[in-house]
Amino acid sequence: MAVTLEEHQQEPPPPTRTTPISGIEDDDSHRPEDGHNNGGSNHIDAVDFDNGVEDTEEDEDEDEDDEEVVPETAESKLRAQRDKMENLFRRMRTEKVTLRVHDVVIKGNAKTKESVIEAEVEALKKASNLQEILQASSVANARLQGLQVFDSVNITLDAGPPELPGTANVIIEVSETKNPVTGEIGIFTRPEARSWNLEGSLKLKNPFGYADIWDGSLVYGWDQATEVSAGVALPRFRRWPSPVSARVSMLSKDWLKFSSYEEGSSGFSFGLLSTPNHELNYSMMWRTLTDPTQMASRDVRRHLGHSLLSSLKYTFKVDRRDSPLRPTRGYCFLSSTQVAGIFPDDRSVRFLRQEFDFRFALPLGFYRAALNFGVSAGFLLPWGRSFLSEPSPLPDRFFMGGQSSPICSLGGPSFLLGFQCRGVGPTESQRATKDNLEGTASETVPKRDALGGDLALTAFADLSFDLPLRLFQDAGIHAHAFACAGNLSKLSDNEYHDFSIPKFLQSFRSSAGVGIIVPTKLFRMEVNYCYILRQFDHDQGRTGIKFSFSSA
To answer: Strand (E) positions, 177-261?
Structure first.
């Protein structure tokens, strides 16, 4: 039997195209009359699935009875072939046809190592029937396509050796990418930080035959961040059961508008584990905080200088929502744990950072309406001697505010609609300069630096629904009403003495509003009217229309 699974673009077969099939037959058709059954096994000749059904040639068993041959019309032959095909698929769906894989044959891999392909199709060798083989073939096809080094993948199941009945050979034919070098460039916006980024990347695929992908990227932000990085990703490294990656980078962030410092870092990172639910990464970065304005507050100035970040980060994620951009049912949970201070150095920062995100979507049954709930929480604590009396590192604290959608964002308790980036939480006055003292009374009021917090908690509720106009429904444009609240507080540097849960809950900031959402294939755009329900002195919240761009 030959069963072909392909994942490349092809013209669909004509609707009148059919396939003569023998081997897997109906119980009452072409049954041997002498009682023999080929050793009790299923004999499979040829069936091709190639974005439809292709014509195959097979020999028909001649009738043993000397009956008069009735001429068949083309229509009757076509109907018989269709009936036979429907019967085949019915048996494949309902009956288990005992079959095992005898051999795996790989073709078309001029550059890619066979061991790389074999590692992606190991499940085929464990299948014990036709249904399991077809399912394993589909999974293997998707995994091979996921390597991003093949233009097409074709998996065929053919009959095994005649002396081994009940076996099949798996033929894997790949077409390696014709253009191993690809590039991307685009401009992206971050409304919460009022910045625009120019991002470009260049990829080199499979230069050494291990499905290795080498890439270099550049991110240039007009107001905030600039990053240059290069890395390599491997689907397998020796006997390691998970994809691995390595990356070197140089990063510069400008937080002068919000916290009076600039951050520069350089180093490397390793992706040690990467599965749909688990990720484990190690990074070592040399960081430098500077204040070119010489106006930073006292708390910011004590963090200026050099430090070493050596951390191990584990992330667990389960996403059962029907859509990450507009979920109408399901749930999502994410837990992220980061332990810093692994490398024994006096300048190494030591802390434990934990984040939790939970999202739940409930369908309401009309106008595609759905109610989404979400809670995010996190805490940051230094570790070591007298850890509660030491300040937590400023760049690793939690900051709150921004216009990105909390439905799409699973990055901890950071977003609060209606408040600007780093616009919520503890602040401290910048130090006065001679130029400020010589100004007018209104100009001598010093600006304040956002200091962030060690404990953060946010929650939101969002009701989304279709608009009544068919034009909007066809385009996916819909409306929503939302309410969100959040707060953060310091615990380190002996601040825990003044902390209490009732005080923390009473100082929550909150906002509500309505908006229009325009989804695209790449991102989700929102135009919201935000109304600030509660804020405190020095918070940066403002009622009005806000624009937001979010991606899954």
So the answer is: 181-190, 195-205, 213-221, 225-234, 244-254
What one-letter code names the amino acid at 43? Answer: H
Handedness of CA 232, 235, 236, 240 (dihedral sign): positive
Which residues pair with residue 370 across a beta bridge? 363, 464
Torsion sign, CA atoms 11, 12, 15, 19 = positive
Cβ proximity of 511 and 420 under 8 Å = no
Q: What is the pTM of this model?
A: 0.76
Decide: residue 370, CB within 10 A, 0-12 exposed, 13-18 middle, 19+ buried.
buried
Residue 264 half-sphere exposure toward CB, CA atoms < 13 A: 7
Reduced DSSP (H G I as helix, E B as strand, rest coil) percent helix, strand, coil of the chain, to 5: 15, 45, 40
Question: How many Cα atoms within 13 Å fall on the side-chain side of residue 333?
Answer: 3
513-524 pLDDT, tens digit per residue, is 999 999 877 777
d(CA 321, CA 357): 14
For 9-56, how does the pLDDT look when each residue is reduced to its tens digit (9 = 90+)?
A: 444 444 433 333 333 334 443 444 444 444 344 444 444 434 333 343
- Per residue in 139-156, pLDDT (tens digit) is 999 989 988 899 999 988
Cβ-proximal residues to 507 (8 Å cutoff; 6+ apart), any chain: 487, 489, 536
